[in-house]
Design brief:
The complex is a heterodimer of chains A (142) and B (148).
Chain A: H1 12-32, H2 38-69, H3 75-98, H4 103-135
Chain B: H1 5-21, E1 27-29, E2 40-48, E3 50-58, H2 60-71, H3 80-103, E4 108-110, E5 114-115, E6 126-134, E7 137-147
Antiparallel strand pairs in B: 1-6, 2-3, 2-4, 2-5, 3-7, 6-7
The chains are: A mainly alpha (142), B alpha+beta (148).
Chain lengths: 142, 148
């Protein structure tokens, strides 16, 4: 999963977190897609999944704090998008565990996460940067 | 506006392809000879001021190239991972269209993406097939809508 400079918001703490998020999701997807049997990789998939999940919640929280600090008018709508994703991750995780670590569920989750994250960072989050620049508060660390 | 809904779907598709895949060389193409019975067909149901569905048709090569671009990994078969990634893109495009429709006082909601089925109803007020050509392959949108 490739980071692109166009994803940069110009907010150091959020940009650093986005890079870390792409790194962790990328590691998870690389493990998920590795060309070995499910039995061979399921433990690694579960480890990278947990490592990634925790960071998603932490990042969303920090990004929301930043939005509040600059009085971003789209805060409520953006938080709703975050909350929907966190709920989806939790629901899939529960179903995945109770299924006994079903591969199909995880492959479906990985595919959706890939597209969702790229769109979210490349589109939704850019609106935060546009507002910060317009208001002259870009470049702060929130 | 209702007569131009297809242009909103095409505009949103171009925008998303450019934003997410860095594909800017996109042109219209004829729906003739498009292999609609092979590859991925993803249906997004629409409810509200417009009701019906939009079916996104992605030939397998197009789907694989799109996922390769996004993931940076070689993916060589249309499996659950690929279907889910492409379905989410169809969902994102449709969501963007809803925003455009709302700006034109048309309020609609979308349903989660599902595999498309053969049309059993027919007779839609707005029924059209629009296709685009990109550097990673073609995509067709089959729009089937009725005004509420």
């Amino acid at each position: 999963m490739l980071w692109k400079d166009k994803y940069e918001l110009g907010v150091p703490i959020i940009d650093a977190q986005h890079r870390e998020l792409f790194q962790r999701v990328g590691d998870f997807l690389k493990t998920l897609r590795s060309p070995v049997s499910w039995e061979e990789k399921v433990n690694s998939v579960n480890e990278t999944l947990e490592f990634m999940k925790g960071y998603v919640v932490e990042h969303f929280h920090d990004e929301e704090e930043y939005q509040r600090s600059i009085s971003y008018p789209g805060y409520e709508a953006h938080k709703e998008v975050h909350d929907d994703m966190v709920n989806y991750v939790q629901e899939v995780s529960q179903e995945y565990e109770s299924s006994g670590y079903n591969e199909k569920l995880m492959q479906q989750f990985g595919g959706r996460l890939l597209s969702w994250l790229i769109n979210h960072v490349a589109s939704d989050d850019q609106r935060i940067a546009a507002y910060a620049i317009e208001k002259g508060v870009a470049g702060g660390e929130g | 506006m209702r007569d131009n809904v297809h242009s909103l779907f095409l505009e949103a598709t171009r925008n998303v392809f450019q934003l997410m895949l860095d594909l800017s060389d996109i042109s219209d193409r004829s729906a003739e000879n498009f292999p609609s019975d092979e590859g991925l067909g993803i249906s997004i149901g629409i409810e509200g001021d417009l009701t019906g569905e939009v079916i996104y048709r992605f030939p397998n090569d197009t789907s694989l190239s799109m996922v390769n671009i996004m993931s940076g990994m070689e993916v060589d078969s249309v499996d659950d991972f690929v279907v889910s990634a492409i379905s989410e893109i169809a969902n994102i495009i449709s969501g963007n269209v809803l925003t455009m429709l709302a700006e034109n006082d048309l309020k609609c909601d979308i349903q989660p993406p599902v595999p498309s089925k053969p049309d059993e109803n027919g007779g839609y007020e707005l029924q059209t097939i629009k296709c685009i050509s990109t550097t990673v392959g073609d995509v067709c949108l089959e729009i089937r809508l009725n005004a509420a």
